[in-house]
Amino acid sequence: NNRVVSGVAHDLNVAKVALFDVPDRPGIARAVFKALADANINVDMIVQAAMRDGRNDIAFTIAKDDLSRALPVVERVCREIGASGTAYGEDLAKVSIVGSGMMSNPGVAAAMFAALADEGINIQMISTSEIKVSCIIAADEIERAVNALHAAFNL
Amino acid sequence: NNRVVSGVAHDLNVAKVALFDVPDRPGIARAVFKALADANINVDMIVQAAMRDGRNDIAFTIAKDDLSRALPVVERVCREIGASGTAYGEDLAKVSIVGSGMMSNPGVAAAMFAALADEGINIQMISTSEIKVSCIIAADEIERAVNALHAAFNL
Lengths: 155, 155
Ligand SMILES: C[C@@H](O)[C@H](N)C(=O)O
Ligand SMILES: C[C@@H](O)[C@H](N)C(=O)O
Prior knowledge:
The structure is a homodimer.
Chain A: E1 7-23, H1 28-38, E2 43-47, E3 55-62, H2 67-81, E4 85-98, H3 107-118, E5 125-129, E6 132-138, H4 142-152
Helix pairs in contact in A: 1-2, 3-4
The structure holds threonine (THR) (2 copies).
């Protein structure tokens, strides 16, 4: 088990932003993230899940201090592309499990989600790569989250 | 520029599945992915973007051949947790840019999205890590996507 997940990482310098009901057509993701790049805002996680009725939601995370600069940019893009609205969240943290053995182990992400659920911790955003599963949770839950994940994966 | 993005990867063995309007409370992500793990279905990308009205959408990708086994599992979980419905997609591909220099370069994801947009390629799902930005697109667009990304990043 130690070989599958080799560590738990966390980041408290996290804010999230979302755009709702963006048109699901080429050029929309570029419009959003080019505007942020032009404003020199560093984006960490980007997540876009599933289209419904020709629309999709896009959420991303940035450093806490960049929120006040990012929001006007996002609101302008929201109007330009005809999205239905925006939302943001502060007082957040990112918690991740990291490991090279995760790819062919179906239960690993499920075990992370179970460990957080057993602590009553709500998972606000999820993003993955082959070697990492990252969840956004409330900042005041990070200690319990990290401890629960260390216990779940014998770390 | 070569040092920021070091490569383009792609995967044609991809199907996507989504659950809509899952209750946004602890234990829901576990319910979905434990059911898939118990059915021995390997999950690649998992994305969950933004909550609205106490609900969220969860999308994930699996190997094409696992779709027929995954759908009954997902439909059952959908009913159990009170989600509004499910959807799936076939004939898909995952295309990714990979690089260790991406983290502090705001424009890199934007440049990937721009290269795909310039080809008229629609981005269906997005997931990121510090060293990778992955997009799900139609399978028949993968060649143009990979070529466009090689050109955009001088690879
Ligand atoms: C929603 C957004 O990702 C859109 N599909 C695009 O390609 O830009
Ligand atoms: C939507 C789902 O991720 C839920 N918030 C959970 O914690 O399981």
